[in-house]
């Protein structure tokens, strides 16, 4: 089985309870960055054991691969409805490291009628992977980390940008209105550091660290690139708990 197929089977096993797919995890080395789970394979098992029987649902909408990494976009019921991005790192055919970012599923579509997971799912333009990763990294660094708003329009094709954030409407106009509304409420959103940029074809995922509303936050942003411009965006935002609450010492990143 491919890395993608093994990852999909592992995620589905959370729902089905099948033990076989868990064999893809290296029992001697599994570095866990979900801070609600203890390290290693035992920590993964202990977390699943806490799930109420029959409660878990897993619908993985997107799966992409970048070298040793597989990253997924999933509609979960996992201790309640959530949308999540997961990143798995493979080594010698086994998964040895896992990161994720989970956000509660909203009860309604966003102002433009989009959900957090709808839209295109298949990667194209495989030959443009590196160029698209470079473009998206530059966007996040310029706009979200450094606030160089004068460069914003150059990353998009007019106002056709499709937005899946549950609070924000389509287009640069929608983004501007949302930022203005947050500012009026005194809510600040700050990206401080990019940790990981992964891509396959026209899809690029960026894992970043910063703050939202004054709380330490993990940002996962998935972008679809079209003709050298950003065309679509999905994300999850998760508050990083206080270190006293961590069940492993690996950190969120």
From TrEMBL:
Domain SnoaL-like intervals: 136-233
Pfam families on file: SnoaL_2 (PF12680)
InterPro entries per record: NTF2-like_dom_sf, SnoaL-like
SUPFAM superfamilies documented for this protein: NTF2-like
Protein name: SnoaL-like domain-containing protein
Lineage, opening ranks: Bacteria, Pseudomonadati, Bacteroidota, Cytophagia, Cytophagales
């Amino acid at each position: 089985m491919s890395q993608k197929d093994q990852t999909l089977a592992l995620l589905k096993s959370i729902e089905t309870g099948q033990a076989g797919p868990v064999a893809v995890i290296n029992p001697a080395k599994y570095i866990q960055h979900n801070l609600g789970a203890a390290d290693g394979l035992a920590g993964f098992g202990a977390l699943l054991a806490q799930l109420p029987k029959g409660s878990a649902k897993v619908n993985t909408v997107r799966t992409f691969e970048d070298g040793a990494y597989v990253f997924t976009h999933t509609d979960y019921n996992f201790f309640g409805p959530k949308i999540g991005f997961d990143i798995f790192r493979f080594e010698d055919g086994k998964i040895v490291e896992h990161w994720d970012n989970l956000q509660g599923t909203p009860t309604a579509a966003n102002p433009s009628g989009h959900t957090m997971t709808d839209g295109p799912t298949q990667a194209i333009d495989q030959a443009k992977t590196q160029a698209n990763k470079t473009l998206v990294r530059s966007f996040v660094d310029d706009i979200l980390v450094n606030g160089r708003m004068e460069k914003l329009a150059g990353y998009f094709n007019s106002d056709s940008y499709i937005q899946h954030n549950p609070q924000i409407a389509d287009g640069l106009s929608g983004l501007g209105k949302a930022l203005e509304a947050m500012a009026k409420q005194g809510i600040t959103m700050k990206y401080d550091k990019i940790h990981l940029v992964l891509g396959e074809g026209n899809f690029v995922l960026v894992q970043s660290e910063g703050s939202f509303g004054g709380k330490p936050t993990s940002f996962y942003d998935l972008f679809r690139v079209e003709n050298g411009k950003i065309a679509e965006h999905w994300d999850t935002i998760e508050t990083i708990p206080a270190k006293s609450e961590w069940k492993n010492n690996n950190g969120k990143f």
